Amino acid sequence: MTTTAHLLADAPAQLLPARELMAFTLATHIILVPLGVALPFITLVMHHRGLRSGDPVALLLARRWSAVMAVQFAIGIVTGTVLSFEFGLLWPGMMGRWGDVFGLGFGIEAWAFFLEAILIAIYLYGWRRLKPWTHFWLGVPMPLAALMGAFGIIAANSWMNTPRGFTLDASGRPVDISVQQAVFTPMFGPQYWHFVVAMFLTAGYVVAGVYAVGWLRGRRDRYHRLGFTVPFTLATVLTPVQFLLGDNITRKIFHEQPVKFAAAELVWETGTHVPEYMFGRLQEDGSVKGGLKIPQLDSILAGFSPDTRVTGLASVPADERPTATQATIAHWAFDIMATIGSVLILLALWYAWCWWKRRDLPQSRWFFRCAAVAGAASLVTVECGWITTEVGRQPWIVYQNMRVAEAVTPTPASSLWIMFGLVVVVYVLIFGAFLGVLLTMRTRWRLADEDSARARDGAPEADTPYGPRRPAPAGAPGARPGPGSTR
């Protein structure tokens, strides 16, 4: 029997469905997180531009983005609540023993969540009802609340990666808890800023990608140009920053979680002059099959010298490290994330070069094709980042303190598989409704723009967020009857 098969045979039957359910709900929820964290800021940037320059197109974009922000937040309420319940339902061993140590992070996230809900409601209500600048300043706390929510979640996750702020009594339970040390662990800073910049960068590419598609379809008006330029510029500025932050967090993992680093880089034996493998698959005997081998590069990347000593997976017992399959998954996720990040840097440089030379957007359709794909590619990197973080930590749910198998629920595996199936069905319906609402909003806005263009000889929509409402054309859906109408 192979080592992997032996470890799986010793695992509780309910471990696999519990992990699959948690992975599915986290992977689907995280699709919404970039817009939840960064769209309030991007919207306010456009809002400020519109107020400062008296630009009705910018104000129109800000108002429409705020509507998308509200719909996304509503869906995030559902998926985020499911995740919160799953921590207690699927992993009672962890929450029961360690909740007092790291639970503050979840409390911070909950408070931020409710605060953001109130702020979004006020911001949406403020269109047409508040003075323009008063409305803008009431929206400024929205990004701060989003960042506070990210603070709570990353504080909890970074503690799971580098647990601090406690001592263990004779029975193995945590005592003498220090909240400050539990929150500000060695991984917190690198992980928080890497996560936040990833959210802003991804949201910028996602929003810009929508208008890049419109540009490719011939919609070359100022509405699409502005809708593309503002979020794409933000993403362009942050892309090289994120590359440096990614290098920093990888080096921090090398020092704080050497076994996870070994899994992500497919390092089997501890030593110096360690090669770097691009993709490839780790075998049970420690060999790597396939992929591109670059001599000495892994040691150079880890410590800026080929003499850097890198810890290998074989340095710890088999039940204290990821399996060969888990290491391969973490490695592929890491390499995909790094590859996409490198391509995005090239796209950002292309954009920056054209803007520096001509103060204009690139003219190539290939640029806009790449920009349209960049949003989806950025979401893939976000997914890969979490896969690297969670799979690379295996078999620990609390690094070097509690295994995943020790934390799992005693609920029968059959019940968990049924729950998994029900959650998949519900999520398909939820995300289908989300997509349907967005498409309906897009269609309605496009019809409104076409009506406005006909009414004003191609000018942008005149029904600005702070101006008087323009009466809908007679016979249009939702049009109100005029004076003297018998309707």
TrEMBL record:
The chain crosses the membrane at residues 21-46, 67-89, 101-124, 136-156, 192-214, 226-245, 329-354, 366-388, 416-439. It is found in: Cell membrane. One of its GO terms (biological process) is aerobic electron transport chain. One of its GO terms (cellular component) is plasma membrane. The keyword Heme applies. Its main location: membrane. Keywords: Cell membrane, Electron transport, Heme, Iron, Membrane, Metal-binding, Transmembrane, Transmembrane helix, Transport. It is a multi-pass membrane protein. Signal peptide: none annotated. Residues 451-487 are annotated as: Disordered. Pfam families: Cyt_bd_oxida_I. InterPro entries: Cyt-d_ubiquinol_oxidase_su_1. Residues 467-487 have a biased composition (Low complexity). It comes from the Bacteria. GO terms for molecular function: electron transfer activity; heme binding; metal ion binding; oxidoreductase activity, acting on diphenols and related substances as donors, oxygen as acceptor. Belongs to the cytochrome ubiquinol oxidase subunit 1 family. This is Cytochrome ubiquinol oxidase subunit I. It comes from Streptomyces subrutilus.
